Amino acid sequence: MPSSGRAPRLAVVIPCYRVRAHILSVIARIGPEVERIFVVDDACPEGSGALVAEAARDSRVDVIFHQRNQGVGGATVTGYLKALESGAEVIVKLDGDGQMDPVLIPALVAPILEGHADYTKGNRFHNVEDTRTMPFARLIGNALLSFLSKLSTGYWHIFDPTNGFTAIHAAVLRQLPLSKLSRRFFFESDVLFRLNTVRAKVLDIPMPASYGSETSNLSIWKSIPEFFIKHMINMSKRIIYNYFLRDFSLASLEIVFGLLLFFFGVGFGAVAWRTSLETGEPATAGTVMLATLPILMGLQLILAFLAYDIANEPDQALYPLIQRLFQARERIERGRLQ
Question: What sign has the CA pseudo-torsion 130, 133, 134, 136?
Fold first, then answer.
């Protein structure tokens, strides 16, 4: 939230890899509300960065070159660090392939500037009519990835997690361990996981789905197995961080006893079933109940935990609190110096 009535300092980060055909038109559509534009050439084989450096006439543009490819996450982190150095207050991440309209930048950053969110991202699924232009395979793949993202990040009301059109307040960005963020296509999902660990508020911003001649470097279906493993790892970390290290509540007991009862029931039932097959004798009613009841009770506790987790999604912007904390520290330091 800008102070003293002045306009907020906005910066745009554009990671570039195989976007030579679109990058100049993307830059040309970025409005005057943006103060700096950081184009990160991620060892692009098409020389996207060199093209921008040679042909772009916009004084706001600063081109950064990677000697080796670091992935979209690595390129974005490089741009983030440069934007923080420049003093930007809100930093927008925009892909260079033309699928994201820079005209939407004011709508993307508005909730942050108004103090309603710390991080905003595009959602191509908000308008059902827009999804008709989306390839069916991508539609289904994104739905699966969105559900996995809800589990791992704790942002249950967020959809379209691979959408790279995002904005973040600089004060919150400084709270994230940038060196630990995924460097490849899991970057956006990993950022959401890290945002939840600092209790930042995230909002979806409706945006139209646009698919033209550009070719996406992300294969949704090939990414699902890799993303599944990473989402499960992040989900485990998030539960440990939020429900055992930083807090301990009824939900902590629900997930522990729910998992214990569920897997006991499954394990006992599997052993009883195998024994029944080997001996040829049917399992008794008591054996069946001893397997079934723990499974049902475990599922009930797990569902109760999920209900608590959904209700526990961060609902207050973090950066105003961070700013007030820094201001208080500055006043204390000035008092000491006087």
Answer: positive
For 194-244, what is each residue's pLDDT tens digit?
999 999 999 999 988 665 555 555 566 677 888 999 999 999 999 999 999
Phi-psi bin for 113: left (phi > 0), alpha (psi -120 to 50), beta?
alpha
Contacts of 238 (CB under 8 A, 6+ apart): 152, 153, 154, 193, 196, 197
Q: How many CA atoms lie within 13 A of 180 on its CB side?
A: 12
pTM: 0.88
Q: pLDDT tens, 256-268? A: 999 999 999 999 9
Contact 89, 170 (CB under 8 A): yes
CB-based contacts of 79-87 (< 8 A; 24+ apart in sequence) = 79/13, 79/14, 79/15, 79/38, 79/40, 80/13, 80/173, 80/178, 81/178, 82/13, 82/38, 83/11, 83/13, 83/36, 83/38, 83/170, 84/170, 84/173, 84/174, 86/9, 86/11, 86/35, 86/36, 87/9
Cross-sheet strand order for the sheet of 36-41? 61-65, 36-41, 10-16, 90-93, 166-169, 119-123, 202-206
Count of beta carbons in the 10 Å neighbourhood of residue 240: 12
